[in-house]
Amino acid sequence: MSLNEKPFRFKDEDYKKYTLTAELSEKEEALFQNEKISELKEKYAVYSDRLGHGASACVVTFGCQMNARDSEKLSGVLAAAGFKLTDDEEADVVVYNTCTVRDNANQRVLGRLGHLHSLKDKAPQKKIILCGCMVQEPSVIEKIKKTYSFVDLIFGTHNVYKFPELLCRMFDSDEMLVDVWRSTGNIVEELPVIRKYPFKSGVNIMFGCDKFCTYCIVPYVRGRERSRASKEILEEVRSLAYDGVSEIMLLGQNVDSYGKNIPGEISFAQLLKETEKIEGIERIRFMTSHPRDMSDEVIDVIASSDKISRHLHLPVQAGSDKVLKAMNRGYTRADYMALVKRIKDKVKDIALTTDLIVGFPSETADDVKETIDLVNEVSYDNAFTFIFSPRRGTPAADMEMKMSGEEIKENFDLLLKAVQENARKNALKLTGTRGKALVEERDPHDESMVTGRLSNNYLVHFPGNKDLIGKYVTVELTENRGFYFYGRMV
User: Which domains does the chain have, with CATH numbers?
Assistant: First the structure.
């Protein structure tokens, strides 16, 4: 099988038996789903009467920032229908928005479903909903149908926007409802949203990925790359700014590929420039970038901007050319280091973070040493470090392992130590400096303190009251505590 072919395990036939609804045009779909919210309000009233109280709902998010953004849409629909939103899983309706990047993410969800089952035994009217990446795998759906038959509704990543319609169908049925699509051409964003923070928000600019790294299931569960029209993105950002949002994060599985699938659309660099012009937006973040696609134009835009954050997440995954090739990453170690040099030369105060995998099937201890060397050479400010998790449906799942589990753990610890040492050195260099922090919340451990986030993504805790939340203040970093600081306003 070619690395760019869809894996044989994921066939259209696997999804056809789960697909209940058909697609309208994007505008028709947005109108239809908003009409369904009106119908859902009536069903909410009937459901609440049956319960004897106003129904509550809880949305639990697993995974990435794009999942978090999807959960804000799910919460928005539930709130618009009348549900009282809560963080308590004893709510009348519980939604698990799932992740499947690693197997332990699946196991976490399945483990917590057991707890929900016990709650539903005590309250049979309780509704349990699964959505997101995990349920895009046909084998997972079969497992849920067999072992977790108490789940009421299952839908995937491609039809999140049909949540109002699916809720209406769920309340009309006593059987498990499954609606999972293999792909979609539609992008429908015009639904109610409940943001976690009133002053910052994610904005989806594209969905899916075309890279087909051999270990990664994302292209199969999120689909191929689809960009939103820049006109719609910028209009959403303007609307958010009008609503008091001052920081936005542009979201996509591979933001550097933005616009490439739409003839005549602007590039990601141009999108950043246009976003900068919007009054009220003071800080712009984005993720995730792919080293293969990041252009010099994007680097230049970052370097010349007063609004784009000084933090760049640039996943490398491995430092060995042999392993990078087996992963189908599309670049060499030298390519990556040349990109890092261009970034650091032009953006002097940039904070770099990355993703690293240990224990990829073809990897040896010598390959891990090369990754450690790369970590020391780049000197990352932080890294998400993972042990390889085979995902069924990807080429890497069938590759032969070179290291034992014990060796992988030992090498993982060595890599983690290198990451932590470099992060500590970089943080110590910042001690005594000043920066502008967006105050996000009260310090959960000390109500006399607040927590702010700097442009470089470091957190700083400092004395302040709740009136500062949502505001930008200048803070001096007085004491480093590893991956965060204590400071004082100046």
Answer: 12-179 (3.40.50.12160), 199-303 (3.30.750.210), 310-430 (3.30.750.200), 434-489 (2.40.50.140)
